[in-house]
Amino acid sequence: MTLFDSHAHLDDPRFDADREEIICDMTSRDMLCVCVGADMQTSRAAVKLAERNVNLWAATAVHPHEAKSYKREDAETLREWAAMKKIVAIGEIGLDFHYDLSPRKTQTEVFIEQLELAYTLDIPAILHVREAHGEAINILRGRKDSLPPFVLHCYSGSAESVKTYLDMGAMISFSGSVTFKNAVELRETATAVPPDRLMIETDSPYLSPEPVRGRRNDPRNVVYIADFLAALRDVTAEELAKTTEQNALRFYKIDR
Hints:
The chain is α/β, with parallel strands linked by helices. Helices cover 41% and strands 16% of the residues. The protein is built from nine helices and eight strands. The protein has an eight-stranded parallel β-sheet with strand order 1-2-3-4-5-6-7-8. The longest helix has 18 residues, at 104-121.
């Protein structure tokens, strides 16, 4: 079966020692992956990885943590990258009111600007929303007629919020956090997402799923998330893998 890790950070320095070995192994398994930037530097690194590897694609943008470093001229660079064949999304963008590493006003402004950019470029957007779902939903509702296709990556919100996102046409992606022993509500939410809106991801090197929790995560561990969600949703692992692969290919407009 083909597994598609819809969101990973293979540019991270924690992969410097064995990045090429991991990618080679992924290629041999016919695994697909989108490498996601968090600022202009990591976005540039994701672009280079995607350009060099047939089974990798990239998303480029400025994460809410780094919103304070966003410059107006960055929008032009994002436009240039979006025109490249292997660049499939603007992301990750959004709001993070848990850490507040950038002022909330700045996060909001940068989120809206990049969301509008994705719509203008007719390219999907990858959303990072943590402890800010009410604010994010208000922003999205205010642009209901000019929204790009979007995915809530590493979904961690409530079942109520997921219904609202689904009503707006969102895709919902689950990471290793859904496998954690205390993630009871999140598992209930994962069963409620329609099959055609479901994606899976590792968000590696973060959020290693059970049974490899505590170790550095990598895209190959998406198999644990696929297996877990398959059992949770009472389908076979092969069916879950095929569904999420086809959803990711459609969402990212990838023609293999």
